[in-house]
Amino acid sequence: MANIEHVQYVNVPPALVYQALTTASGLAEVWTQDLQFSAEIDAVNEFRFGDERPTKMKITALIPDTRMTWHCVDSDPEWIGTNVSFELNDMGNKTAVTLRHTDWREVTEFYRFCNYNWAIFLLSLKQYCEGGAGIHYQARKF
Prior knowledge:
CATH superfamily: START domain
Largest sheet: 7 strands, antiparallel
Number of strands: 7
Number of helices: 3
CATH class: Alpha Beta
Mean pLDDT: 97
Helix content: 25-40%
Structural class: alpha+beta
Radius of gyration: 14 Å
Oligomer: single chain
Number of domains: 1
Shape: globular
Strand content: 35-45%
């Protein structure tokens, strides 16, 4: 199995990063404005990206200011059954955010594309948390 793993340093406390990752308003700025999101264990949240098949993620862990994990229940077939986690580590005046997208069946062109886009997600998260505006899907030029 293949995994994607990135780390980003955000110059705000973990509580602010956690809030961005666990609210519809935060994820709308960071990832996509076309979403339905509720931060509850077992909630299945939906994220939409243009004409693509909606991505449905079930929340499997929520530890305030520390961790959130999702299990993909519907999306592009390569995503179904994979897991995404966000781990937040307090580093004093900044937060280390480790994003992992695990349990890919193989490394494919789509895996590589997603690897790049998760890095953009973390850049968007950093910009949103530090400056108030992320780079959500609808604002990006592909």
